[in-house]
Structure formats: structure tokens, C-alpha cells
Amino acid sequence: YFFGASNDTIKYSMDYMSVIMCGAWFNLPGFAMNSVIRAEGNPKLASNMMIIGCLLNLILDPIFIFGFDMGIKGAAVGTVICQLVICLWSGYYFTFGKSNLKLKLKNIKIDSKIIKGIVVIALTPFCMELASGFIHLITNKVLKVYGGDLAIGAMTAITSINLLFMMPVYGISQGMQTIIAYNYGAKQFDRSKKALSIGILGAIGILSFGLISILLFPKQFISIFTKDARLMELALNGISIYSLTLPAIGICILGTVYFQSIGSAKKSIVLSLLRQVIVFIPLILVVPKYFGLNGVWAAQPLADIVSMIIIGLFLRKEFKGCKL
Length: 324
Description:
By secondary structure, the chain is an all-alpha fold. The chain has helices spanning 10-20, 24-39, 43-67, 72-95, 112-146, 148-185, 189-216, 218-222, 229-242, 248-261, 265-278, 280-291, 293-321. It starts with 9 loop residues before the first helix and ends with a helix.
């Protein structure tokens, strides 16, 4: 209820949550080990694990939802099974596989210096994830006031569609982190800048393609998630506003990751919170008072524009300070 559920949706939330939380035991170590596989120089295997996990999820979800008539709980069961597969696969790789690192109990020791380094680097993505959950809370409550449960459903569809095009950008951000960090540490600032530039150009290209696709075929995208006429109408109106600044998000994401990669923890934390918290929260609380539900849809694109400008200024200042 605290996150915006109503009497009509609480049953579905409870059914899903009761199962998906059990998967945390497999999801967290599996996700962590998958990242280590990529970091030790085997990104293809890490990618294959995630791709196979996603494909398996696409197969299992309909089987449990419709085949076993489990409804929303079936979707959670399918997801948890996929998380378990990735965890076991990653664990096997680090114990019996051809990994450079080996997972052994005797090697698990607490080292304060290593922990400190991990915490410093992890603070930025941690804050981003925390902010994301907090934003969902606020957004759902505002949507409930101005549009009810249907508006929350519409926002879920809209954000999912946008995420389809944003996921490759997150992939780019993960791929360029090591390159930027390595070259920055070697004082090859021109290479770090080039890696960021290529990443941003790629991200803008992908997200621009996404924006054009969404504007040309909004109904086709939304119909993937719902056939309800009222929900479709709300989502069509919302997606035409919400997605307008999609290309700008690439600069926001990759600019923040750049500062994380070079060890500027304070800057990266502030910039990571900029788009989703510092700028977005005041906008989503104020703009809907004047424009109603359209104001809710518009809050995120406005936050994207403001954040892109600020992050761009930070990057410009950073590059001026580097002796290229």
C-alpha cells in the first residue's frame, strides 16, 4: 500500500512479491558473479548467461502463467527459476570451470581496504537503485491522485517500452567503465574522452531510433502490454509526452558513469541523483498541479533536459582540467 497499491491491485502484488523475494537468495550472488565473469575478461560468457536467462524466462513465464494457471504468481516462479539457473551456472564456472579466479571458502577473507574500494565504487549505482525505488513510490502516489490505478498501469507500460531501448545504453555504460578507468589511471585522458564520446554517440543513436519507433508505432508497442481501451488511451497520450527526451538520457547515464569510472565518487553520486531525485521530485510534485495527468507525464522529460545540461557542463569542466 505504501508504494501505491490499491484494494484492486494488492492481491497481484502480494502473489508476485511472495515468490520473487525467495529468488533474492539466487539473484544477488548470481548477479554479482556474472559481473565478476565480465570483469575477469570473459564478457561473452557473461552476456550469454544473461541472454539465455532472459530467453528461458520468456519461455517459462507463459508456461507457469497459463499452462499451470498460476497467474501473476507463475510469472514470479518462472523468473526465480531463471535466477537459480544463472546462479548455479556462475557458481560452477568459478569452482569447476575455466575461470582465472576460483571460488573457495579459504579465499573469502575480510580486507578493509578492498571493502572500502568496493563501497566507494558501488555508492553511485547503489544510490541510483535506491533513488529508482523511491521515485516509483512518489510517482505511483501522484499517478493515483491524478489518474488512479489505470494511470499507474499506463506508466508501467510506458516505462517498460522506454526500458527496451535504454537497456543497450546500460550495456554500453558497463562496457566502457573498465576502458575509461584503465586509461584514466594511465593518464591517457584522450582515450578516456574518446571512449565516452563513442559511447554517447552510440547511446544517442540507439535512443533516437527508439524515440522515432515509439512515435511512429505507439499503439503497437502499448498493445504488447494491454488490450484495454481505456488503459490504451491513457498510455498513448502518456508515451507521446514521456518519451520526447529519450535521446538525452544517454548523456545523463554515460556522463554519470564517466565520473564513477575515474573515481570521482562525490560527483558521480550527486549526478546520479540529479535526474531521478534532485530535479525530478520537485517537478513531479509541482507540474501536475497546473497540468494534471499531462504534468505527470511531462515531469520526467523536463528533468532529463535539465540534468543533461548540468551533466554536460560538468563534463566540459572535467575535460578542460585534463591535459589532453
